[in-house]
Amino acid sequence: MKIRQWMFPVLLALLFAAVLLAGLVPWDRILPEKEALPADAVEIGTLDTVQPLKGDYMIQYDDPDDPEGSVTVTYHVPSVGDFPMHYDSIDDVPRSTIMTFHTPDGDVVVIFGDGDSVPVPAAENASTEWEINSPGTVNVEGDTSYCRTRNGESNNWVIYLAGGGMSVDARTADQPRTFYTTGTAWNGIWDSAFFSADPMTNPFYDWSYLLISCDTADCYIGAGEFTSARGAVLHHNGYMNFTDYLDTFALSRSTPDKILLAGSSAGGFGAAMLAAEVCERFPEAEITVLVDCACLSADWRSIATDVWHAPEAIVARMETDDCVTDALVSLKETYGSRVKILYLAVESDTMLIQYQEYLDTGDFAYSPVARDHYNETLRAAVKRLREEVPGAGIWIWRQTPIASLSGGGVHMLVPQLESTAMNGLTALEWVKTAVLYSAPPLSLNLEDFLGE
To answer: Which of 337, 390, 394, 415 is the most buried (most CB within 10 A)?
Structure first.
C-alpha cells in the first residue's frame, strides 16, 4: 500500500527530469552565463546614452546570430560616467550586441559592435529646445558631424565639449567604440542641471549653449588625416570642426559679455587647449575655462603632431607630459585676470586609469601601477596649478581604489554638478560663484589629497 502511495510522485519526478535532459527547458534563461562578469575582464565599450540613469535596470542581451540565445539580467547603472561592457577575452565579443535598458521614462536601445548608440526618443524628454546644426563638418570616419545649440535671453554663452575618448596611435585607430566614439554621442547630458533651461535648477538657464560632440578622436585639436595599422583613414578634424561650429554659432548672436568654456574627459583636454582660441576671437568677453576629468601623462607633443596634426600654436604649448596643465599655465600667463580657471578631477578615475595603462604599457586595462601613475600626475597638476596659476579653483573628488576598481567609480563631474557636494557646497554652486561673481574661485580640501 505504501509503495503505491509513493509511486505516482516518483514517476512525476522522473518525467520532469527527462524533460529537462531532453533540452525542453531553456537553461540559458534560468542560469545565464553572461551574468558572471569578472572584475578584470576586457572592457570594449561604454553606454554613454544612459549616463543620467540611476539604480538597477534590466538589460537584455540579444545574440544576432542566435535568436534563442537572448538572456535578461539585472545590472546596477552608476549615476554618472561610462558604463563598461565586459567579456572574459576579446575573442568572446560578439560582432554586434543589442541591449535594451528599461527605464521609467522609456526604453533606451544601445547597439555595440557594427552599430552606433541609438536612443529611443522617449528617453530624450528634456531635449526639445535644442537645435541640430552641421556647417559642413565631418567626424573621424568622414560622415556628417553635428553640434547642438540653444538660444538664451542673456548675452552670455556656454560652450561645452563633450567626452568620448581619443585615438593616440595606429593601433587605437583600429578600435573605434573601445578607445573613441565615432558618431554624434550627446551622452544624454541635457537632462542634468548644468544644461537645463529651468531657472530653478540651472544658474546659466538663460545663457546660449553650444554643445559639441566628441566624434573626431583628437581631443578637438586635430587638423589632418591619419592612417591606422589596417589602412583605415581617420579624419582628425576636431580643430576645424570646433572653429566652424563657433563661427556659425557666433553669426546669429551679439558679441558675448561672458563665456563659459567647459569640457569633460576628452572635452576637458580640448577646453584647456582651445581656450586661447576663444580668447583671441572674443577679446572683450570675460572667459571662464572649466576642465573636467582631463589628466593623463603622455608624450602629447608627438601625439598631437604625428597623429592629430594639431596646429603648431597648440603644440608649442605642450612642454611637459601634462598638456592640460601646460595649456592652463600658458593661458593665465597670456591673458591674466581676464580668464578664470576651474579644474575638476577625480582621484583614482577608473576610465582615465585604463587610458594611462595603455599609454604606459599598450594594455587597455585597470592596474594598480597605472592607478598610482594617474594619481601622481593629478597631484603634480594640482601642485603646479596652485603655484603657477594663482586664483585657480580646484575641486578634487576623492574615491577609494576599491570603488574605482569595482567599475562603479566616477568619471566626468559636469553631468552631476548638482549632486556633488563638499563642505556643504555643491559643485554647481561652486561653478556659479566662480563664473558670475568677481571673487576668485575656491580650492577645497587639497591639503589631505596632496598629503600636506
So the answer is: 415
